[in-house]
Every structure is written in C-alpha cells, then in structure tokens.
Automatic annotation (TrEMBL), chain B:
Name listed for the protein in its UniProt record: ATP-binding cassette domain-containing protein
Species for this entry: Microbispora catharanthi
Keywords: Amino-acid transport, ATP-binding, Cell membrane, Membrane, Nucleotide-binding, Transport
Xref: PROSITE patterns: ABC_TRANSPORTER_1 (PS00211), ABC_TRANSPORTER_2 (PS50893)
Compartment(s): Cell membrane
SMART domains per record: AAA
Amino acid sequence: MTEGEAAAPPGMPEGAGSPVWVKSERQLRREAELRGRARRSTSVATASTIVVVVALVVVITTSPGWPRVQETFFSPEAFVKAMPDVLRGFLLNIQIFLIAEVFILVLGLLVALVRGLRSPVFFPLRALAVLYTDVFRGIPTILLIYLVGFGIPALQLQGAPSDPVTLGIIALVLSYGAYVAEVFRAGIESVHPSQRAAARSLALSHGQTMRYVVLPQAVRRVVPPLLNDFTSLQKDTALVTVLGPLEALRQASIHAQYDFNYTPYVAAALLFIALTVPMARFTDHLAARAARRRTGGGTA
Amino acid sequence: MSLLKVEGVWKHYHGLSVLRGIDLEVAPHEVVCLIGASGSGKSTLLRCVNLLETIDDGAIHLDGAEITDVRADADDVRRRIGMVFQAYNLFPHMTVLENITLAPCKVHGVRPEEAEKQARELLDRFGLADKAGEYPDRLSGGQQQRVAVIRAVATNPRLLLLDEVTSALDPTLVTEVLGVIRELKETGMTMILATHEMGFARDIADTVCFLEGGVLLESGPPEQIFSAPEHPRTRAFLQRVLEARRM
C-alpha cells in the first residue's frame, strides 16, 4: 500500500458501450492522502537521519583523543600529497580485479559443470573438482597469496611466472574460483527438475540441456550472489600488496611510513568505497528487477 | 445489510484496465460465483477484496466499513477474510497441522493445544484425519487443496474467497474439493468463488456474476443466468463452454 503515484489512465481504445474511466472524487482524495503520507514518511526519515548523524559527530569529535586522531588520519596536506600515488596504485587494483574476474568466471563455471557430469568415466575429473573447491575455500586468501607468490617462483620452472601481479592474480583466481563454482552449482541445482525433464523429453542431450535450458536460467538467478563475490574481490585485490607490487595499499603504506601519518590509508579506503558502492547499488537494482519480474507476472 | 459491498472498482495493470467499474454486493451466508473467460478479471477482483492488490478507483466495504480506506489496517481486514488459491500455496516446510494452526496461533492468539484440537476436528470432518503429520508434497492435489480450504477457514473468517480452486486438479479429484465447499455452504459460510465449473456454480451459487473484459456484464440467480441469460455476451460465453464440453 505504498503506491507513490497514481496509475496512468488506460490509453487503450474503448469499445462502444464499455465504461470509460473518469477518476472519481474518492480516488482523488485517496491519492492526496497517500501523497501526504509519503511526504510525512520522508520528513520523519530526514529528521531521524539528522539526529543520528549529529549524535555520532558529537560523540566522535568530543572524545579525548580526537585532536590526535584528526591529525594522524584526516590531515588534508598528507591527503593531497599521497593521493596521486595512491590513485595510480589503485588503477593497478582495478586491473587485477578486471583480469581476475574473467578467469574466475570461467574457472568457476567449468568446475561447477564438471561437478554436474554424471558419466562414471568422468569420476576422476569430478573428484578433482570436489577436492579443488574443498581445499581452496578452506585456505585463507592471504595465505594462498603467500604460497602462490613465493612458492611458484621458488620452483624455478621454465616459463613459470615470476611477476608479483601475475602471481597475485593466480592466487585470487584460485581462491575465488572455488567460491564462484559453488555459487554456479547452487544456481544449476535451483533450476527445477521438471525443466530438465522437459528438455530431455525433446531428446536434447545432457550437454544441450545444460547449455540451452538449465544454464540460462541458473546464470540469471546467480547474478546477485556473483556480484556480491566480486564486490568482495575488489577489496581483496589489496591483499596482493604482500607480494610487493605498487598497488593502492602498498603506495599508501609507503607514504604513511615516510610521513608517520595514516591519512594515505584513509585515502585508499575512500577509493575502494568509491568502487564498491556503485557495484552494491547495481546488485540491489538487479535483485529488485528480478523480484518485480517474479511478482508482476500473473495478473487476472 | 450486505456483508461485502464493492463499489465502482477499477484496477489497471501497465496501462491495461483489468477491472472497469465493478459493483457487487454479497449478503451474509450468500454464495456468489464469478464466471467468465480467463483474463476477465475474476481473480483480480478476489485479490482486490483481500487487499492483495491496491485498487485504482472505487471502494470496497466489509461489514459496513471501507477496507480500501488508506488508513485501514490491511492485516485486520485479512484476519476476517479467508482465501484459497488455484495452486494451493501450502507452506512446503510445514506439516498439514502446522499449515492449519499457523494463523490461529500467530495471528489470532489461540493457544497451540486449542488450535491443534480445532485443526484435528476440521481434518476429521473433511476426511483428512490421518494426514495431520504429513508434509504437503506427500499429498495428492485434491488433498492439498482440501488442506488449503481448511487452513483458510480455521480462523473462522467472515468471508471466504476461492480463486479457481479446482483448475489445477484432475477431474477425479475435483469432486472431493467441491464436496468440501458444498459442506461449507451448509454451515452458512459466505463465499465468493471464481470458477470454471459451470455445473457446480449452477448447483451451489445463490448469485452468478458474468465478467468479461473487467466488466460485470450480468448477474442473477443461477437459473436465470444459465437458462435465460439476458446479455448476448453471456449467451456467447455459455455457448462456447457448452461446445468445449461436447468435445
């Protein structure tokens, strides 16, 4: 009962003798009342937000350590000085994120599909997929970055990557691929068995059933949880800092150590927020759209 | 005085008028059957009465009070109205007994033992006593729908809305659900049914309403509507139904 605006009058051609809608007095009054309510809700929301924000600001700024905190974390000079380098580092974070994301999607989908294979011939593959998701979801990402980042170069294999950014991406892909594989698998399993039965009844093979019937429905359903994982990935790109590439966190800590001021960290945090917030809103938007499609379907 | 009064109700979806100025009065203990083709607005009208849809114009009164007033408490209205859906809509994670006692316990404040006792009485009366502990997916469609009816009447509603409750059932199961509805009529339950079962409508209804394109074209006692319909559109509709049955 939170209809914001009145429905538009129907623009359909009316047949002869059929009633034509003229908005009644009662409906006009009802809509006025609803508008009044919407206004009141907005005012209440604004007032309560102001109260909360003011209270928070007062509590923080009157705390005994505030002057020191303000100087070490919120120094405008340090901010301006560090920002260009931190921003340059942040571009590397975005690069890591974008490259890793593609590989994660491919790896996750492959693992999920392998786990769905039925034939006994594929047992070793299936076991490998299970082992992979179990192991790599269990290892903390930062540990995995250490292991990959220092372990692979130590093998001194011909052609093995030694560049810290590449190694960091490999570690992130391994870690997140396991999560995304489980998300895909959940999506595949959420498609009702009757869909599979209908597809198989048309003599589509297992692969065709997956490709044309199950996956299109599954992928649509898992987009919000996938985006959630990617929001998480965006900030975990900062973990690659332990291998030494000049990404945002590394740049920030160089400046912080040089000036004994933590403001560069705040600058880096702001950049990460600036990237994740639009992503979160986009996820909400997609979820809301999916919900509307579900409820707006059946009418009369 | 009428129990339910629908006055000039309009409802639009995406620029399409689904209900176009519906007027309808239902007296206590009256059984009203809504007939008409799919998409004629029967279900929408029921959903509007239960406030599952907000109307775009007009008013609906229950027991003399306007329930479509923006200040009206929708939950309070729904406490007095029961509804049964075409697809049963039982809660799959609850047993039959839990499905039935949920609203009496959580909404109406009935003590659990009391609610369970009443639920078992109802199940017994409608021949489902041995299904109390089962989960819905273990029941046949007819059994599920009978449970859904019991769930709706367990709170002693003033008015029961039935939305094509036999459309998802195969013919052999239809009769058992219709039997339950017939028995409810004998207890004096006021009901509005949207239905495609013309024989049943003729048999059970006090009033039959024919809807087409969101307009209530004709209403009257079943003998009149089915034997001597006045509106040519009603005649055409019944003719089509007859032809379909012959095939």
